[in-house]
Amino acid sequence: MTTLLLLGAVMMFLAVALGAFGAHALKKKLSEDMMKIFQTGIQYHIAHALGLLLLGLISAQTESASLIVLAGWFLFAGIILFSGSLYALSLTGIRKLGAITPLGGVAFLIGWVITAIAVI
């Protein structure tokens, strides 16, 4: 429980900091296309950081806490792979980094499937 709550809080902090950085420091430096990619990374980062916080709370209320924690680690991996690859792609312009993004999406999906299994 505590681990997921801590991860969620740290990930939310980073999402807000990166979002502010993007809105202020990158807005005039990135093309419109690259800015949209960066913002997509922020959007998924925030959504899944909130998911980590939610899973931290759920893990204290269920007998399937170990599955919930596992789901949380998949969400965390998804943030790193999905959002991280979008941040890197938008900042460097290296399109090949986009090949990593689907791995993060799969990690998100696995995390949510494990969550569904845990609460059933």
UniProtKB/TrEMBL annotation:
Q: What is its main location?
A: membrane
Whether Transmembrane helix counts among this entry's keywords is yes
Q: Which domain of life is it from?
A: Bacteria
Q: Which Pfam families match?
A: DUF423
Keywords of this entry: Membrane, Transmembrane, Transmembrane helix
User: How does the protein associate with the membrane?
Assistant: Multi-pass membrane protein
Q: Where in the cell is it found?
A: Membrane
Transmembrane segments annotated in the record for this chain:
41-60, 67-87, 99-119
**Protein family:** Belongs to the UPF0382 family.
**Name of the protein:** Membrane protein
